[in-house]
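Task: sequence design from structure.
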């Protein structure tokens, strides 16, 4: 990792959001059109082509779910249940209620909050297993009151889904699970097939084809976000332990060659020790090749003269994950304006939040923490305004309303009000 002594130049994590090559865009367009036209047949065909699985049915059966429990040890099932409970309890505190205000003149104004009817959750699969992605995407929807949650995930060559994914889905209350991945799964959730009923919103991470498909169907359905590569920024003073900082930086670097790991510190000693530790720890990582590429391309260590300058850099970067490893991390917290998730102190390593603590790990990337938030209960509800004017309130304000309408050149609006004055 390169050590950079920072002056006052502006820094940024922001990179162009991946839009894919022309070939990838065309491939996604073709897949979506085929799924719209042929339904299950197209999804099954693409599953054979891309995942090597020859399926006769897309839907996961109850027998397969029960078999998944047989394949997992009891301790892991217990951990999944505890994590699900933690995530549910955290998101339950986000839930908001409908409200109505009454005025003395008879005006009634309010907001009605209604959960979405149905949500689709995409979980990456194939050779990988991500039960944590299931829990993070499903639990806030359950808290919000979504009744129908359909999950899709690509199968392995044997036509199976990860036992961990199936157990997590069942524990989280998913009502339907399908063996489908890639752009074809997104198209099936958006447009529907003979087996899959369309949903109102699609959430969950995926590769470039999934991201392009989500972008293509947005408008017909809602989506959570177009997420970029994962990021971590660590803010540290001379109390930070180099081996722990290095381990946390590498925890993000192993995700993806384009993942970003950055240390911002006031201590040149910490910077140099972390630099050595990253190099040492890389050697024994199972995903060494991925992590090494990430560190080489996007890993940086910024050394500042003051903590105020360090905090300013963090706010400019607006990272997905921010760890504060200082002697008094709470003192820095109030000064942080832009971060997806903030981890305070050495015992709050980023995986604590990613897997177990309760806050959501679906976070804004690419500097978008400047204006957006983690996946939350509000993402699974819609708000309707309520307006009720009494005769007294209407008569008191009718002339003001007609004047505004005529100023905008909308005569019919003005007359709609005046028709009630006669």
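Answer:
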């Amino acid at each position: 990792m390169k050590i950079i002594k920072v002056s006052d130049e502006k820094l940024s994590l922001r990179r162009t959001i991946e839009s894919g090559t022309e070939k990838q865009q065309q491939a996604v367009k073709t897949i979506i059109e085929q799924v719209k036209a042929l339904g299950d047949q197209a999804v099954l065909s693409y599953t054979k082509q891309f995942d090597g699985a020859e399926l006769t049915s897309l839907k996961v059966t109850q027998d397969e779910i029960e078999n998944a429990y047989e394949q997992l040890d009891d301790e892991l099932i217990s951990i999944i249940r505890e994590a699900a409970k933690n995530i549910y309890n955290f998101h339950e505190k986000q839930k908001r209620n409908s409200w109505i205000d009454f005025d003395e003149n008879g005006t009634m104004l309010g907001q009605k909050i209604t959960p979405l009817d149905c949500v689709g959750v995409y979980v990456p699969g194939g050779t990988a297993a991500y039960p944590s992605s299931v829990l993070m995407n499903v639990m806030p929807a359950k808290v919000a009151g979504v009744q129908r949650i359909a999950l899709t995930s690509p199968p392995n060559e044997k036509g199976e889904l990860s036992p961990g994914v199936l157990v997590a889905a069942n524990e989280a209350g998913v009502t339907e699970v399908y063996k489908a991945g890639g752009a074809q799964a997104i198209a099936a959730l958006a447009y529907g097939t003979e087996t899959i009923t369309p949903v109102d919103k699609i959430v969950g991470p995926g590769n470039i084809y999934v991201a392009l498909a989500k972008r293509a169907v947005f408008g017909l359905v809602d989506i959570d976000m177009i997420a970029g590569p994962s990021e971590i920024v660590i803010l540290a003073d001379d109390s930070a332990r180099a081996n722990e900082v290095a381990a946390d930086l590498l925890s993000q670097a192993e995700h993806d060659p384009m993942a970003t790991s950055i240390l911002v510190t006031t201590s040149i000693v910490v910077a140099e020790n972390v630099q050595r530790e990253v190099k040492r720890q890389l050697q024994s990582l199972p995903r060494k090749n991925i992590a090494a590429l990430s560190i080489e391309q996007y890993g940086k260590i910024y050394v500042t003269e003051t903590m105020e300058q360090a905090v300013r850099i963090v706010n400019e970067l607006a990272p997905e994950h921010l760890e504060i490893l200082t002697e008094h991390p709470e003192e820095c917290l109030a000064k942080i304006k832009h971060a997806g998730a903030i981890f305070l102190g050495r015992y709050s390593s980023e995986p604590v939040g990613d897997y177990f603590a309760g806050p959501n790990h679906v976070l804004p990337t690419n500097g978008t923490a400047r204006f957006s938030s983690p996946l939350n209960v509000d993402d699974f509800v819609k708000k309707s305004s309520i307006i009720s004017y009494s005769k007294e309130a209407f008569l008191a304000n009718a002339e003001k309303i007609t004047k505004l309408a005529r100023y905008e050149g909308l005569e019919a609006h003005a007359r709609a009000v005046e028709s009630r004055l006669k």
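The chain has a mean pLDDT of 94.
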